[in-house]
Amino acid sequence: MSALLERNLPPFEAAAMRIPDLTEVMAAERLAYPVPWTHGNFVDSLAAGYPAEVLRGPRAELLGYWVAMPGADEMHLLNITVVRAWQGRGLAVVMLDRLLADCRRLGLTQLWLEVRLGNERAREVYRRYGFAEVGRRRAYYPVQDGPREDAILMSLMVEAS
Question: Where are the domains of the chain?
Fold first, then answer.
């Protein structure tokens, strides 16, 4: 049974992320992370043509978003965020499904991501999705006060559809 049926998600629409979306995206980003992406990070990603989407709910409210960077035969997930009020309902899986479909459409064979060592909830979502923990990046993530946090490097082989 799909995550949509299991979680009984509300209707939603996915659309390419655009500059006008960034006001809401930045508000969600600041609530989600101690050291959020900057407005410039998002603008640069969109200007580079990186795949990026927003999910919107029945009243056009922002539910989540993701940004990825394609490379030679692979895709690197740079940012995936579910708005706090909508967490735990399967939206991360919906966004991963959409990203995986993009990978297949582009003929890419591997999907990569980094996740904070201490973000066990996200790591478990990725493991259940099929990602394998393949490495560790020391002092990868900045923190507000204190030493930088390690990242766990995860990978998923993309099967042709």
Answer: 3-157
